[in-house]
Amino acid sequence: MLISELSRSLIEIAWYFGSKGLNENCCEDLSMSEFIALDKISSTVDCPIQEIGQTLGFTKSGSTRIVNRLEKKGYVRKLISTEDARICCVVITEKGEEIIKKSDIGYIEKFDQLLEKMPEKFHQETKVVLKAIAKAIKK
Question: In 3-state terms, what secondary structure has residue 77?
């Protein structure tokens, strides 16, 4: 056995909830990086491009490329910061909000389908553990 059971489990979960596992219907025409950036933008008022880069672990130029693609697709708009004209901020458009909401519904439905295959006594605990793992990743 070259891959441990834990590693294989993590890979299967990532695949199951990644864009491929959702039959490429998760995020329509968005890559996973673009989707994560759009999610960050949707939850941050006047989101600076640099903050998007930090979320993705990308350089400023890498995050600028992501934002440019999102803008070209109509999901975001770039604005000059009202506090500092040197800072470019990004805001989500109505089209961007729609894809975030649609994707959220898809993820929740997929997760609920998965929970149905598990004993009910693990449902709440699974949700708590997944949120804790995601929080630990961000630290």
Answer: strand
In tens digits, the chain (139 residues) has pLDDT values of 678 888 988 888 887 777 554 555 567 788 888 989 999 999 998 899 999 999 999 998 999 999 999 999 999 999 987 777 777 899 999 999 999 998 888 888 888 998 999 999 999 999 999 899 988 987 7
Which residue range forms the structural domain that includes residue 37? 22-107
Q: Across-strand partners of 51?
A: none
User: What does the block give as tokens for 134?
Assistant: 């995601």
In a domain, 6, yes or no: no
Residue 60 is assigned to a structural domain of this protein:
yes
Domain presence at residue 32: yes
Which residue intervals of 73-119 are DSSP H helices?
94-116
pTM, full prediction: 0.80
Query: What is the domain-level CATH number for residue 88?
Result: 1.10.10.10
The reply to whether 58 falls in a domain is yes
Q: How many structural domains does the chain have?
A: 1
